[in-house]
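Supplementary Note 3. Input sequence used for the single-chain structure prediction.
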Amino acid sequence: MKDLLTTLENRRTIREFTEEKIDEETIQKILDALMHSPTSMGLQQASLIRITDPMKKKEIAKVGNQEYIERVPELFIFIADHYRNFRLIRDNGRNYDTNSNVDIFLQGFTDAVILASNMVSVVESMDLGAFFIGSILNDTEKMIEILNLPKLTFPVVGVGFGHPNQNPQIKPKMPANLRVFENSYTYFENYKDKFKDYDEEMTTYYDLRDANRRVDSFSNQVYTKTMKSSPKRNEFLEIARKNSYKL
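The predicted structure, written as discrete structure tokens, is reproduced below.
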């Protein structure tokens, strides 16, 4: 296994995998490690669902509009899960307001993200490749249907992994001085000038999803991606409310 610093410094998103399966013993080791992830107030308000049904993978790939999701050897969906604790309270004969509040919702959401991040770090330390799937939020109502989620749960993010079958470049990231501040937020006089070097570096990167051309500068990506609007994503909070979260 690789050490953590080497794993993080050399991480790349892998979206194509060999047909080699990952043995169940390795899967169990990964899951056992994840159970030690930190959680808000120790309440462990997140769960994960392993997707082994090819038809469900196909449906999730449609939600994400990413066909390679259908072909990934291992697929896990991480959910904010307050249903379990609600049942624990109720089945112990106590009252509980099922209209969970914003704080509780965000605790579960954060727990799920931490679990997913830890999974990627663990599998990459094993020389496996992985990718995050934020696109499950394209249609959270459909994801709730696919996963048969109860009230007081919500899909947060997915992770796919397997044995890599591609060797992409390491994607350039902005230097630490643009993101790491001390004691208070740092403001720059001219952000266009400040990002000039990083913009130039980004245009040397080839994303294997469109390997025939270099990516746009970071500044241009910020504009084009921020301006995109997804009607279904805009319904995010409304769907959570339907699933008994008081937001």
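The domain at 4-168+231-242 is CATH 3.40.109.10 (NADH Oxidase). The longest strand covers residues 153-162.
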